[in-house]
Amino acid sequence: MTETAEQQIDRLNKIVPDFPKPGISFRDLTPVFADGAALRAITEALVEPFRGEVDAVAGVEARGFVLAAAAAYALGTGVLIIRKPGKLPRTTIAQSYDLEYGSATLEIQPDDLPVGSRILLLDDVLATGGTLAAGVSLLDRAGWQVAGVSVVLELAELNGRAALPGYRVRALSTR
Question: Is the pTM above the cut of 0.85?
């Protein structure tokens, strides 16, 4: 019998205690991405509810890039990258946000797609929701429509969905 995407996530992900600082249990999904069958399964599961509803897929730096590229390929769409400051060469818009262990800023180039484009936002983990809420804010400010948010793993106890009210959120595995 073939494993589901969730079973592959559960089997392959690694928990790294005290990273990036003491008290944080980091969910490392890189072993999931390194397994070809698992990457294919999670990519298909991430995009399935959104097929035919998106013009491009956006990924948040850095693990979100892996997912967004694979998802865009699976959907036959383009890919947008949401980066840390100073990494994009043209005019950008920025959004700062809080993390469970600090703060950060993300940027996009708003002229990458026409206004009104429908975007699926992807990342590896939904924790407190700060990163994805910042991504949604950037996409909205660029004039694009957020078709949904899809993640590999949701840490439900951190209530990150509360930071994304009104948006369709798909999580393949919830812990």
Answer: yes
